[in-house]
């Protein structure tokens, strides 16, 4: 795999042209092969990059500029259309190489199943890993209609890999009764409906630990993010999500990787969701890459 040039010509604003000199790698995972409702998130990473041109390079929240962080935009990983398992293998192999090179991986989805191979890769390097999961949906099913490779299963897979007590979910407002029962039985942390306040209570518990942060854009209320595959009423505001990212950034956590998933441009007529996602990516770059 070559890192001397991006997979695609479109790059996020202020990305660094050289992989070797970069601290972090931004990459797209254009997969939506297993979604159960509306497809289209495979086009999310490209649109997030395209609208980033409208961003300010400076974050008034963190008092940092993008030029202060050297990050390389590798473009979208070329994935075999319709082949879920091979796509997941390709993602894991890619992130393995990023981590071996000592870079911070920051992914853009794609459906939420793409987080699973990234977590597998990160866990190989950080066996004491914890996960902060911010989402509308529990994603704790073992399968969807008999299919274990589903966008409704990645957090269950991650919990079974690293131990459910090492997974912390926030903003959850949808899921099967069995999902919530399982989480309670095994001691997994789930904060329903809200994110910022319960997150503030958990951050001291995770101080010093390696943490992977995965954010599904549908944690936002549809009024703030209509462009996603599975909209769900009753969500948080973009202001609350930004504040939560900033609290993670200012905490004593050792954030070792992150992703933002489920942006689906075809349902985003005003480009509100893509622009919000682009700003969130900027804040994650400036906040998580030390």
From TrEMBL:
PROSITE patterns: ARGINASE_1, ARGINASE_2. InterPro entries: Agmatinase-rel (IPR005925), Ureohydrolase (IPR006035), Ureohydrolase_dom_sf (IPR023696), Ureohydrolase_Mn_BS (IPR020855). Mn(2+) binds at residues 112, 135, 137, 139, 216, 218. Its cofactor is Mn(2+). GO terms for biological process: putrescine biosynthetic process from arginine, via agmatine; spermidine biosynthetic process. Belongs to the arginase family. Agmatinase subfamily. Catalyzes the formation of putrescine from agmatine. This is Agmatinase.
């Amino acid at each position: 795999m070559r890192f001397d040039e991006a997979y695609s010509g479109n790059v996020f604003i202020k990305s660094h042209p050289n992989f070797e000199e970069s601290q972090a790698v931004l990459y797209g995972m254009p997969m939506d092969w297993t979604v159960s409702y509306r497809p289209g998130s495979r086009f999310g990473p490209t649109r997030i990059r395209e609208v980033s041109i409208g961003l300010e390079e400076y974050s008034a929240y963190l008092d940092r500029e993008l030029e202060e962080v050297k990050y390389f935009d590798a473009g979208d990983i070329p994935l075999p259309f319709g082949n879920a398992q091979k796509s997941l293998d390709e993602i894991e192999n890619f992130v393995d190489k990023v981590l071996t090179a000592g870079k911070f991986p920051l992914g853009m989805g794609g459906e939420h199943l793409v987080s699973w191979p990234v977590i597998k890769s990160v866990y190989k390097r950080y066996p004491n890993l914890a996960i902060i999961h911010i989402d509308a949906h529990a994603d704790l099913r073992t399968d969807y209609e008999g299919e274990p490779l589903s966008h409704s299963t990645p957090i269950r897979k991650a919990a079974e890999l690293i131990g459910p007590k090492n997974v912390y979910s926030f903003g959850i407002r949808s899921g099967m009764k069995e999902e919530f029962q399982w989480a309670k039985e095994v001691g997994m942390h789930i904060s329903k409906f809200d994110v910022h306040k319960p997150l503030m209570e958990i951050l001291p518990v995770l101080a010093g630990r390696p943490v992977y942060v995965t954010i599904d854009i549908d944690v936002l209320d549809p009024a703030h993010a209509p462009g996603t595959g599975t909209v769900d009423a009753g969500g948080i505001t973009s202001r609350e999500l930004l504040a939560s990212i900033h609290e993670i950034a200012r905490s004593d956590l050792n954030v070792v990787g992150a992703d933002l998933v489920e942006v689906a441009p075809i349902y985003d007529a005003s480009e509100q969701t893509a622009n919000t996602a682009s700003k969130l990516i900027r804040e994650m770059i400036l906040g998580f890459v030390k």
